[in-house]
From TrEMBL:
It holds the Pfam family HemolysinCabind. InterPro entries: Hemolysin-typ_Ca-bd_CS, Hemolysn_Ca-bd, Serralysin-like_metalloprot_C. GO terms for molecular function: calcium ion binding. This is Hemolysin-type calcium-binding repeat-containing protein. Coiled coil: none annotated. It comes from the Bacteria.
C-alpha cells in the first residue's frame, strides 16, 4: 500500500496494509481484522481494536496490537535480529500470540527466565526485568532474535504464547 521511502499512513476498514521500503508509520483505526506488515525499514505499526495479524518485516520495528487477539508474526531472523531488535508495546501472554515462520529447529521449548543452552532445538527465554524475549532459532544456545516487550503483560507467559510453523 505504501511506496518507497518513509511513509505515514492512517487507515480504517482495510483488510491488508503493507508498508514497503523505508521507515513507515502505519496506524489502523476501527475493529475490522487487518493484516499489517511494515516490510523493510524501522517501522511503527499500530493496529486497531480488531484481531489483527501484525508483522514488522526487516528492521527495528515497534508493533502495537491494540485491543483484540493479535498474532505477531516474525518471518525470519532478519526481522527482529539481536542487532536491530524489535519491540511489541502491548503483548498479552493470555490473549496474543507470537508466530515464527520457517525457523523451527527440532522441538520448541520456552525456558522462562532460565538461560539459553545448546540443545539442538529452538528455544526462547525471558529476561524479565527489562521484559526482553530472546529467541534461539537454531538451538545453538545463542539468541538470534531479540524482542522488547514494552508495556506488555507477561503474567502467565509460557509455551502456549508461541506458534512455530
Amino acid at each position: 500500500m505504501c511506496g518507497q521511502g518513509a511513509n505515514a499512513l492512517s487507515v480504517s476498514s482495510m483488510e491488508a496494509v503493507n508498508g514497503g521500503e523505508g521507515a513507515d508509520a502505519i496506524t489502523v483505526a476501527g475493529s475490522i481484522a487487518t493484516r499489517l506488515s511494515g516490510n523493510d525499514g524501522n517501522d511503527i505499526v499500530v493496529s486497531g481494536s480488531g484481531s489483527d495479524q501484525i508483522g514488522g518485516g526487516s528492521g527495528a520495528d515497534q508493533l502495537t496490537g491494540g485491543a483484540g487477539v493479535d498474532p505477531f508474526i516474525d518471518g525470519g531472523v532478519t526481522e527482529a535480529s539481536t542487532m536491530a531488535g524489535g519491540a511489541i508495546t502491548d503483548f498479552s501472554a493470555t490473549t496474543d500470540l507470537s508466530i515464527f515462520t520457517g525457523m523451527l529447529t527440532g522441538a520448541f521449548s520456552f525456558l522462562g527466565v532460565a538461560g539459553l543452552t545448546a540443545t539442538g532445538s529452538s528455544q526462547a527465554r525471558l529476561d524479565a526485568t527489562p521484559k526482553i524475549l530472546l529467541i534461539d532459532t537454531g538451538g545453538d544456545g545463542n539468541a538470534d532474535i531479540k524482542i522488547t516487550l514494552t508495556g506488555a503483560d507477561i503474567t502467565g507467559l509460557d509455551t502456549n504464547a508461541f506458534l512455530w510453523r
